[in-house]
Design goal:
The chain is built from five helices and twelve strands. It starts with a strand and ends with a helix. The strands form three sheets. A seven-stranded parallel beta sheet has the order 7-11-6-1-4-5-12. The longest helix has 17 residues, at 17-33. By secondary structure, the chain is an alpha/beta fold.
Length: 184
C-alpha cells in the first residue's frame, strides 16, 4: 500500500482549483491502490480551517508546513522531507508553472520519474500510469514509474469533486537548505 501526496497551492486564503482537482483525482486513485490521498500545504500563517478544508475534496490528512510560500525552494525541501520520511510512492501537482518547478526539483531530490502536462492518470497493476499529449496533441505518451513518480497535471485536467468533510491537520517541519532560507 502506498499513499499519494498532493501539493496544494494557495493564494490569498483560497486553495487553487487545480490543486483541488488533483486532490480529488488522487483520492480516487489512492482508493484503487488501497491507500489514502494526503495533501501538503506550505506557507506562512495558514489556518487549520483552510488546511482542513482540503478533506472536503478527498484528502484523508493534511500536512501543514510553516515556510515561505509561493516559492519553489522551500516547498521542495518540505516535500522532500515528507516523501523521504513517509509512505509515499507518488506526488501529484495540479499544474501551473510553480507546480512544474517544484515537481521537477522534487523529482531530482527524491530520484523519481517525472511527467509534466498530464491529462489522465490510471491505476494499473497496483501502480499509477500517467498519460500526456505529445506531438501537438496528436498522440498520447504513457509514463510508468520504476519506483517513485512525480506527476504534474495540465491546467484544468482534473474535475474538482467536493462533498467530503474536513481532514485532520498535522504540523510538519523540515529544515530548509541554506539556499531556500535565503529566498524571498
Amino acid at each position: 500500500m502506498s499513499n499519494i501526496l498532493v501539493y496544494a497551492l494557495h493564494h490569498d486564503g483560497a486553495i487553487n482549483k487545480n490543486s483541488l482537482g488533483a486532490i480529488s483525482e488522487a483520492s480516487r486513485l489512492a482508493g484503487e491502490l488501497g491507500g489514502e490521498a494526503h495533501a501538503v500545504i506550505v506557507g506562512q500563517g495558514i489556518s487549520d480551517e483552510l488546511a482542513g478544508s482540503l478533506g472536503e475534496y478527498g484528502a484523508a490528512k493534511v500536512l501543514k508546513a510553516e515556510a515561505p510560500d509561493g516559492l519553489a525552494a522551500p516547498a521542495i525541501d518540505v516535500l522532500g522531507a515528507i516523501v523521504e520520511g513517509g509512505d509515499y510512492q507518488y506526488v501529484v501537482f495540479g499544474g501551473g508553472l510553480l507546480g512544474f518547478e517544484i515537481g521537477a526539483g522534487l523529482a531530482a531530490r527524491i530520484n523519481a520519474g517525472l511527467t509534466l502536462e498530464v491529462t489522465a492518470i490510471a491505476a494499473d497493476g497496483g501502480k499509477l500510469v500517467a498519460e500526456r499529449p505529445i506531438l501537438g496533441d496528436s498522440s498520447i505518451s504513457t509514463s510508468r514509474y520504476k519506483d517513485k513518480g512525480v506527476i504534474c497535471a495540465r491546467l484544468n485536467a482534473f474535475e474538482v469533486k467536493g462533498g467530503g468533510s474536513a481532514a485532520p491537520v498535522e504540523a510538519v517541519s523540515a529544515e530548509l537548505s541554506p539556499q531556500a532560507a535565503q529566498v524571498t
